[in-house]
């Protein structure tokens, strides 16, 4: 299944937006506060969209509920993983695993079959992202970290396949997006006690950043769900995960962070993977 230019641009735009709101989120100290506020904002966006969209078909509602639940479980797993490992190791490991897992899930549950070169391209993208976690000889994952990363990758893969299946059954992609954002808000509020205590920040600037993150999440998820409705799940996922490389570029160009050999190698691998994924090979 080849991705159209339209779907490719949707996924890449989502990757850029994902990297941008993550750059804003990087300055937020309390990640639990960020999670709850950003989901409140996302839910508000979903509620604001309701008057302008059609209600999704009844058969898609179980997917909305399941997608919101699994995404929240992923967040809980991610917070737990960060207690025993660094973000620079945990996040690339999880996101590097997901495209191939999604390829398996899409084949099993959506009957999506890709060309051999597409699987190869996805694998190269995954290796590029994955390499960011293991560049230094001192970087080693404990068994506990590996277990959390694998579980996190399963959760990301699961909610991606769930959303892909759900939006295709909805008859109203934008209605599905709106209710999915509302679902994230509801489940996030219910899961709040599992994430620890929360107190509203006194800093208007900090609160403004949290609102920006929420808006970024809303737009990113909307674009990805739209792309999943139109294209094969695994290639869309691989394009989305390039956000890690985009975030590295943003850090270098705007935040003064060194790009470094690890990021150069990872960027080269991801670019090569995307070329294999997208360009026809005789």
Describe the protein.
- The mean pLDDT is 84.
- The chain is globular, with a radius of gyration of 18 Å.
- It has one domain (5-278).
- The protein has helices at residues 5-25, 31-49, 61-82, 87-110, 116-131, 143-170, 173-191, 204-230, 233-240, 243-254, 260-278.
- The chain has 282 residues and is mainly alpha-helical.
Task: Provide a concise account of the structure shown.
This protein is mainly alpha-helical. It is 76% helix and 0% strand. It has one domain (5-278).
Average the pLDDT over all residues and give the rounded result.
Answer: 84
- Euclidean distance between termini CA atoms: 16 Å
Quaternary class: single chain
Helical content class: over 70%
Query: β content, as a range?
Result: under 5%
Overall body shape:
globular
Record field, number of beta strands: 0
Helix and strand string, N-terminal first?
HHHHHHHHHHH
What integer value in Å does the Rg equal?
18 Å
């Amino acid at each position: 299944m080849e991705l159209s230019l339209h779907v490719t641009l949707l996924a890449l735009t989502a990757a850029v937006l994902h990297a941008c709101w993550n750059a804003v989120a990087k300055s937020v100290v309390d990640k639990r506060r960020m999670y709850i506020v950003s989901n409140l904002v996302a839910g508000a966006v979903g509620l604001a969209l309701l008057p302008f969209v059609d209600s999704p078909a009844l058969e898609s509602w179980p997917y909305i509920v399941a997608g919101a639940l699994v995404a929240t479980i992923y967040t809980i797993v991610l917070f737990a993983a960060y207690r025993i490992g660094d973000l620079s190791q945990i996040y690339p490991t999880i996101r590097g695993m997901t495209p191939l897992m999604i390829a398996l899930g899409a084949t099993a549950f959506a009957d999506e079959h890709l060309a051999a070169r597409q699987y190869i391209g996805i694998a190269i993208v995954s290796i590029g992202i994955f390499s960011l976690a293991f560049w230094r000889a001192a970087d080693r994952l404990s068994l506990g970290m590996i277990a959390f990363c694998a579980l996190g990758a399963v959760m990301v893969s699961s909610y991606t396949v769930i959303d892909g299946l759900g939006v295709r059954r909805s008859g109203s992609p934008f209605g599905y997006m709106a209710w999915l954002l509302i679902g994230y808000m509801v489940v996030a509020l219910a899961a709040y006690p599992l994430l620890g205590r929360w107190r509203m920040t006194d800093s208007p600037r900090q609160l403004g950043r949290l609102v920006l993150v929420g808006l970024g999440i809303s737009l990113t998820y909307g674009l990805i769900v739209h792309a999943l409705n139109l294209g094969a799940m695994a290639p869309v996922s691989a394009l989305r995960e390039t956000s890690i490389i985009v975030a590295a570029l943003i850090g270098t160009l705007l935040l003064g962070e060194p790009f470094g050999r690890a990021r150069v190698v990872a960027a080269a691998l991801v670019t090569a993977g995307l070329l294999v994924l997208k360009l026809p090979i005789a």
